[in-house]
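Sample 3 of the quickstart, ligand magnesium ion:
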Amino acid sequence: MTELQSGYGASPGIAIGHALRIEHNLTEVMEIAIPAEGIEDEISRFRCAVRLARQQLREIRNSIPGTTRADITDFIDTHLLMLEDSMLTLAPVELIRQRHCNAEWALKSQRDDLASVFDEMDDPYLRTRKDDVDHVVKRIMQNLLKQETLDANTINPDFKDSIILSHDLTPAETILLQHQGIAGFVTETGGPLSHTAILARNLGIPAITGCQISRSIQEGDLLIMDGETGQLIQCPTEAVVKDYQKRHRNEQRRRTSLNRLKDEPTITQDGIPISLNANIDRREDVRVARRYRADGIGLYRTEFLFMNRHDIPDEDEQYQHYCAVISSLRGMPLTIRTLDLGADKGAELLNHYTHQSNNPALGLRAIRLCLKHSDLFCAQLRAILRASAKGKVRLMIPMLSNDKELTAVLQMIEQVKDSLLASKIPFDDNIPIGGMIEVPAAALSSSLFARHLDFLSIGTNDLIQYTLAIDRMDDEVTYLYDPVHPSVLRLIQMTIDAGKSSDVPVSMCGEMASDTRYTRLLLGMGLADFSVPPSVLLEVKDVITNTDISKLDKIIPALLSCDNSADIKTHLKKISEL
Ligand code: PEP
Ligand code: MG
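Result:
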């Protein structure tokens, strides 16, 4: 029977595919009492899962090309060794015997014990070994639960064209899933502004977040998901499938028709040129940005280079990577944002640098993390500066909030420049340095940042999160997310005005810039530089080229003076009808 569930439309697009569940939340493992006569079977089930894990890792090890870096193979060897260690193989067996519990529970208990030992270690390197334990435990657990393993090196045909259902997904896992060719995904947690959702939009994967996925959905059930409306349809009738196939075709036709704009200049009806740039997370995204003729890359989130791995990319690796992005851009300018790790953009290696925080969005994140760990930051700055000799590069700092950070960052950049000069390593001495305005304090002090920096970029995702006190990750408060809240609009206007007073360009690279409901409003507020996910470039261009900014002159001040959302919505409607 057809059933309908709904969540937040996190990444638009219709997907029709079979359900595939990924459960990897260890906290969901429950203790189940096993009767005495079932103990030996439970132990043998555990041993089979360990044997299978060994076999899987050996297969991966053998499939790695000889040219692969030694540290990647070393890391698989480490996991293979762990699978021989009695801590992970014998201790859970003992627990099953003593407690008469299920294998999953025994494994999880042993993992928790080991984790607390690692947590107490002072040596940051040894502390990261906890991640290795987790990886090995996860693999055994997946085998116990007979789940598919998600792996960067292997393509699992079961994933192809399926709709993934999961409690949550990290951005790192989302990249792996795209590699597997999934049709879309639905998660129970997360709002449309989580980095996983943004990544899905950048990758063009339909996604729904914050959806209570019904337990009645069986593996392999046919599902339809609409990433725009957030609707998930279980076991649709043939007529419903046909209807959605038609909608999907129409949507694709509409998008194709926008291709006519590709080679048109981005100029408003009254002749004002607007800069339209793309946000990218990975080198592969450059292709789409070029296809839709972005003016440049307004935000390159470098943290993705640090995910799905156990080591930190060193200066040379980063340099090679940035050079590769520059060369794919063929002359288009590239804004490289320094590391914004932390909060929901975790990486396995992050445990080197931070402790668990109760409030990660307010914790050691982005520039705060980089300033605390200057070795990490300097290596990235050197790599970016060296790459600046190869093309048009701008350097952008995330999450600035005060003058001390600003001074410290600028000093560090100067030091890195001096050391490059001393070693006669080429770089662009005039590289523009910009800052993101993502914290209300930064927006309120935007004139300070405008005086000391070459450009500003408004990160509305965080600016809205911090202004309205709503966790981007928490679907319970997503209903409060409102880009046109009067306070948010005032902070945006202040930043645009501060840029104008100091003659410093201001762009917007948060998701608000890509939401066509707000394009005219932003143009009317004086924004002349948008940076959006490559897949929506033409949609935004369509609105820009159909807008006459001079007609907005009266309505924008009226809208900005409103203090309630109903009036703002009325004005927005009027603007859209102009
Ligand atoms: C933002 O906060 O708007 C932004 C672009 O940064 P991120 O989404 O990567 O936090
Ligand atoms: Mg941000």
